[in-house]
Amino acid sequence: MAVKGKTATKKPVKKAAPAKKATAAKTTAKKTAAKKPAKKAAPAKKVVKKKRTPNPAFMKAMQPSEALSKIVGGKPLPRTEITKKLWDYIKKNKLQDAKNKRNINADANLVAVFGGKKQVSMFEMTKLVNKHLS
Questions:
Q1: What is the CATH number of the domain that holds 93?
Q2: What's phi and psi for 81, nearest 5 deg?
């Protein structure tokens, strides 16, 4: 359309169509890439575990006191063995609390080891038993 006295100038039009075609090609490429079979994973390497070495402090033979020797015996033993024998004594005499298994009810021999307490927790027990080792 021409207006009297004025000339109309045409502006250049930008083409966006080729960009849309490239985007469509990318999505098609993604779909075909997803359909390709996955590569098989390499078999896992077997890890050889080292045998744990016990802490030498736990394996050192300790002499139990007189009160503790009534339960575990009089000869020197490592702390781990003393704890095992103490638990064997507790289970044999059914001294574990029925409601709360973490508590130990002391009998006449254990009262001396537990410092006069009638009931202690299993965590407190190890602390009290360490006082009887030299």
A1: 1.10.245.10
A2: -70, -35
- For helices 79-92 and 122-130, angle between their N-to-C axes, nearest 10 degrees: 130
Pair 79, 62: CB distance under 8 Å: yes
Nearest to 71 by CA among 29, 119, 109, 20: 109
Distance CA 40, CA 22 (A): 32
For 76, the 3-state DSSP assignment is: coil
**Domain containing 80: what range?**
58-130
Residue 51 lies in a domain: no
Burial of 41 (C-beta count, 10 Å sphere; 0-12/13-18/19+): exposed
Q: Number of structural domains, the chain? A: 1
User: How do residues 14-64 score in pLDDT, each as one tens digit?
Assistant: 666 555 555 555 555 555 555 666 667 667 777 777 888 878 887 899 999
Give pTM, 2 decimals.
0.58
